[in-house]
Amino acid sequence: MTKPSFFTDQFLIAMPNLMDPNFFQSVTYICQHNEYGAMGIIINQPIDLTVGELVTQVGLQHKDTIAMAQPVFRGGPVDVSSGFVIHRPVGNWKSTLDVNGNIAVSTSSDIIAALAEEEHGPMQYIVALGYAGWGAGQLEAEMAQNAWLNGPANAQVIFETRTDKRWEAAARLLGVDINQLIGSAGHA
Fold first, then answer.
1. 7, 33 in Cβ contact below 8 A?
2. Nearest alpha carbon to residue 181 among 147, 141, 133
3. Does residue 188 fall inside a structural domain?
4. Helix (H) or strand (E) holding 33
5. Alpha-helix runs per DSSP H in 44-165
């Protein structure tokens, strides 16, 4: 029997006391969670690389536009040479996981080529290198230790909220002022 994928399509919001530099004040979009573990992409840690620079690095030509000036994100500490595109589920890409009918994640090079062309790619997207991964039961254990808040993901936070405001915005979806929390919240 398959265990329900409880955290799929959820935000993991780092608690203020989570000092791991990989996840400090991070918001991670959980793309998949099952009995084998969980996989997510951090949506609020831009790196010093633009989408245009990435497109050029993979050998593609692009138009010099505002879209190409968007930052690439550090999706997590695992497999940092692999690219992921979180986007609205439009188009027919070779390797895409439709997470919830409103948000999809693609890993194939054809979506990067479409982003470079701009006419054929998704209008709203985030490009990330690497991902966050948890083995079986690991995420649940971290939740029990109050390392994270979790709640339903929101496309507006992913695609429309300023990067430096996503941590607070994701917490506000739960009615929480993240800056008012203390690290031991939830322990009696």
1. yes
2. 147
3. no
4. strand 27-34
5. 51-57, 109-117, 138-144, 155-159
DSSP H helical ranges for 23-79: 51-57
How many domains does the chain fold into? 1
Beta pairing class for 71-74 and 96-98: unpaired
Of residues 96 and 157, more confidence is placed in 157
Q: What range defines the domain where residue 96 resides?
A: 10-180
pTM to 2 decimal places:
0.90
> Which of 179, 182, 157 minimizes the C-alpha distance to 12?
157
CB 120 within 8 A of CB 83: no
Q: Which CA distances in Å does 76 have to 71, 133, 185?
A: 15, 8, 25
Question: E strand or H helix at 168, and its extent?
Answer: helix 166-172
> Is residue 181 classed exposed, middle or buried when 0-12, 13-18 and 19+ CB atoms within 10 A define those classes?
middle
Question: Within 13 Å of residue 133, how many CA atoms lie on the same side as its CB?
Answer: 8
78: three-class secondary structure by DSSP: strand
In a domain, 1, yes or no: no
Q: Residue 136: give its domain's CATH number.
A: 3.40.1740.10
- Look-up of token digits 């550090």: 74
For residue range 118-132, list pLDDT tens digits in order.
Answer: 767 888 999 999 999
